[in-house]
Amino acid sequence: MLRKIYQIQQFKQIHQYFSYGSTFDKVNNIVVENLVEEINSKHDREGINFQDIKQFINQQVLELNQSLDDLIKWLSNQVNPQYVYLLGLLYYELFLKASENNYSFAQVYLGKCYYDGGYGIECNHNLAFNWFQKSAESGNIITQFYLGNCYEFGIGIAQNTIKSVYWYQKAANNENTSAKFNLANCYQFGKGVDKNGKKAFELIKDLAEKGNADAQFKLGYYYDKGIGTEVNKSEAFELYSIATEKGNTNAQYNLSKCYQFGKGVDKNEKKAVELVKDLAGKGNVDAQCQLGYYY
């Protein structure tokens, strides 16, 4: 159990220091280093049991006649990665307390902790889904998107594309760009909703006009392939160019194809090679294969 840390000599020294009237700042290096050491040791052996960690930290701080707020305040001003890590564990506890009191933004971050793992707790998609659902049902926009994503890909819940569309739509109605983008994909491919290229086009066009690079690439692709609109190679070329300038690699690859085959622009194989070579140097597999074709 975590309490065995109490037996080591350094923790005995802590209580001696306080008995002589020392301040918390004089001993918290020892406190934190040993807390982190024992927490990490338990993590390596058994995986984190956050309830044990919570009880242990609270007990140690209480027996030193200090407060958890003092520890958090001190940790907030430290740069040592071990200390930052422990602060993250404590913030998890704060997220949990606020979440249990139905504060939706805390539920967002608590859900993310469980979704990603690595924040002092193990990844648990079922719990992530549960917290996202609580937050989304209270009207939180970002978790409406997260919930839609969980339903679309079956993360923490059985896959249900109809419910996915429902939550994407709610978030999209509140101007969440990620939800709009995913909703457009649902309409494009008929996932959870009747296939509707025109609706997909409208959603993506709205995002592209607001400067979203991914949407600008996607809109270029729609013009390129005639999805929800008539084919317009010149418009596709312009949008691929804009998105490429913003770092969208898919747009850059498609732009190289425009130059290679003269789609919406004069044919220019030299320019096509330059674009592909740049992408290949960044590790893009498709570009690396295409570069092999050129040479």
How many runs of DSSP E, i.e. beta strands?
0
- The computed structural class is mainly alpha
End-to-end separation? 63 Å
What is the H-and-E element order? HHHHHHHHHHHHHHHH
Pfam families: Sel1
Family: Belongs to the sel-1 family.
Organism: Rhizophagus irregularis (strain DAOM 181602 / DAOM 197198 / MUCL 43194)
Protein name: HCP-like protein
Describe this entry's structure for a reader:
The protein has a domain of 101 residues. α5 crosses α6 and α11 crosses α12. The N terminus is likely disordered. It is mainly alpha-helical and 295 residues long. It is elongated. The protein is built from 16 helices and no strands. This is HCP-like protein. Belongs to the sel-1 family. It holds the Pfam family Sel1. It comes from Rhizophagus irregularis (strain DAOM 181602 / DAOM 197198 / MUCL 43194) (Arbuscular mycorrhizal fungus). InterPro entries: Sel1-like (IPR006597), Sel1_AlgK (IPR050767), TPR-like_helical_dom_sf (IPR011990).
Q: How does the SSE layout of this entry go?
A:
Blueprint: H1 9-19, H2 24-46, H3 50-63, H4 68-75, H5 81-100, H6 104-116, H7 125-137, H8 141-153, H9 161-173, H10 177-189, H11 197-209, H12 213-225, H13 233-245, H14 249-261, H15 269-281, H16 285-294
Helix pairs in contact: 1-2, 2-5, 5-6, 6-7, 7-8, 8-9, 9-10, 10-11, 11-12, 12-13, 13-14, 14-15, 15-16
InterPro entries: Sel1-like, Sel1_AlgK, TPR-like_helical_dom_sf
Pfam families: Sel1
Protein name: HCP-like protein
Summarize the structure.
Helices cover 73% and strands 0% of the residues. It is an all-alpha fold and 295 residues long.
